[in-house]
């Protein structure tokens, strides 16, 4: 409906406000008209009285009646030389109803008298007092009827109202057209742009380009453009993640079969009599087993999300030692040292495979950061506990994380800490820790190194609730 639109409501409000302004103009105008009308009657009465003064106050009754009729009054009285004199007179049809003094009237008084005159349909006889023109005496006083006065005021008021209506309509129409061009059309353009974008948000050609000249509308278009750019980027990100998930699931399926064959050969290596093979075989078997398990969980992740942790009592020192041995082997001859400060008797409740993955991601990132700096460095793993929490710190003396990496640290494909990195390791790690009911946070990262902290709660209620939520 037109009245429910912005244009319709603006048009109605414009007409209403213009009419209100015209009413405020009408009241003083009609009061001024009434005052001028009464003053003209006083002036005409004074002119009529001059005819009597010229004839030395001798005048025929018919001429006197004609002079009074031309002046539109019943009686004329003048005050001269401190004496009041009835100059012209005729019978008054009824007693005087009201007296009005026009020598020094107030604006409010004139408006109130005019409204009273307009709203009183009964013909009255009134007395009007004023000052004679050209100083022809001290005071002039007439009695007259209100019928002709009220008729003249109504006629004048109708002309004012008709003119006001025309001005209101023209003003409203011009404002309506201006609003249509300056506001409504740009707003419709923004709405249309939103509708087109909603049909295909991945199409960058449908992102709005700010063109509005009105500052507020231009700001709205700019904000919408920013929102659309972010949403399009997020949709593309999700699409890439979905494609990557499908690809990883396929690769993991085939890789699992390959690793299963390698596991068979590794099992046979355990029977070797070679001392070096005997020492390396358990680690190789363990690494292949974790790789097979990772492939299986990756397949599950491709269908839904990381599986809930299988909580059990594990010795943290054994897991840390296993991860550090693998990373020390990967570091080779590089000048990187490892420091382990984990109490041998520290036992915590966690999923050993998931905790192994978290520590591997953090320590590997630290090793790669030190290697990228080209300087010697140290990686430290420290653990402690209190009554409520197990805390693990993974620190390094590398160059620290770049600002962009810190801004999107735990977001896949955005929080990569090195060139070519995907940021998946930290994204997976924070999800795994969160599945334990804990938190993975960045405590410090500057030119002296980086400190990641893993907090795992001891409360079984927290763990149970998180486990239930994950399942």
Automatic annotation (TrEMBL):
InterPro entries the record matches: HATPase_C_sf, HATPase_dom, His_kinase_dom, HisK_dim/P_dom, HisK_dim/P_sf, Sig_transdc_His_kin-like_C, TCS_sensor_his_kinase
Enzymatic reactions: ATP + protein L-histidine = ADP + protein N-phospho-L-histidine
GO MF terms, alphabetically ordered: phosphorelay sensor kinase activity
Any coiled-coil regions, as ranges: 217-244
Main location: membrane
Compartment(s) of residence: Membrane
Any single Gene Ontology cellular-component annotation: plasma membrane
Ranges annotated as spanning the membrane: 6-27, 160-179
EC number, as in UniProt: 2.7.13.3
Keyword Transmembrane set for record: yes
Enzyme class: transferase
CDD domains, sorted: HATPase
Top-level taxonomic group: Bacteria
Domain Histidine kinase: 250-460
Identification of the protein by name: histidine kinase
């Amino acid at each position: 409906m037109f009245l429910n639109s912005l244009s319709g409501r603006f048009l109605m409000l414009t007409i209403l406000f213009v009419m209100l302004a015209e009413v405020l103009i009408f009241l003083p105008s009609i009061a001024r008209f009434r005052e001028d009308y009464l003053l003209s009657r006083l002036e005409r009465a004074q002119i009529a009285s001059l005819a009597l003064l010229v004839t030395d106050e001798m005048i025929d009754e018919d001429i006197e009646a004609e002079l009074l009729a031309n002046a539109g009054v019943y009686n004329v009285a003048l005050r001269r030389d401190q004496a009041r004199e009835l100059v012209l007179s005729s019978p008054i049809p009824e007693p005087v109803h009201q007296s009005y003094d026009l020598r020094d009237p107030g604006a409010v008084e004139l408006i109130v008298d005019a409204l009273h005159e307009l709203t009183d349909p009964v013909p009255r006889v009134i007395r009007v007092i004023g000052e004679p023109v050209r100083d022809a005496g001290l005071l002039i006083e007439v009695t007259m009827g209100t019928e002709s006065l009220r008729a003249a005021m109504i006629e004048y008021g109708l002309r004012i109202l008709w003119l006001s209506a025309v001005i209101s309509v023209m003003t409203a129409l011009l404002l309506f057209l201006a609003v249509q061009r300056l506001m409504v059309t740009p707003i419709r353009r923004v709405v249309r742009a939103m509708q087109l974008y909603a049909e295909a948000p991945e199409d960058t050609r449908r992102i709005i380009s700010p063109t509005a000249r009105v500052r507020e509308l231009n700001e709205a278009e700019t904000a919408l453009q920013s929102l659309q750019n972010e949403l399009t980027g997020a949709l593309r990100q999700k699409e890439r993640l979905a494609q990557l998930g499908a690809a990883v699931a396929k690769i993991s399926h085939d890789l699992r079969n390959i690793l299963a064959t390698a596991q068979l050969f590794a099992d046979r290596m355990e029977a070797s009599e070679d001392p070096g093979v005997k020492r390396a075989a358990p680690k190789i078997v363990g690494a292949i087993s974790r790789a097979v398990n990772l492939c299986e969980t990756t397949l599950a992740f491709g269908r839904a999300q990381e599986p809930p942790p299988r909580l059990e009592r594990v010795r943290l020192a054994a897991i840390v030692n296993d991860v550090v041995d693998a990373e020390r082997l990967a570091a080779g001859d590089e000048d990187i040292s490892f420091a382990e400060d984990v109490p041998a008797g520290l036992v915590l409740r966690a999923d050993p495979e998931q905790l192994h993955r978290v520590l591997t991601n953090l320590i590997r990132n630290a090793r790669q950061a030190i290697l990228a700096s080209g300087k010697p460095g140290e990686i430290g793993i420290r653990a402690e506990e209190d009554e409520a929490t197990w805390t693990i710190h993974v620190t390094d003396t590398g160059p620290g994380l770049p600002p962009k990496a810190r801004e999107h640290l735990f977001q896949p494909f955005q929080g990569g800490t090195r060139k070519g990195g995907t940021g998946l390791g930290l994204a997976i790690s924070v999800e795994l820790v969160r599945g334990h009911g804990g938190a993975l946070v960045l405590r410090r990262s500057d030119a002296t190194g980086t400190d990641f902290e893993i907090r795992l709660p001891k409360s079984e209620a927290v763990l149970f609730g998180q486990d239930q939520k994950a399942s």
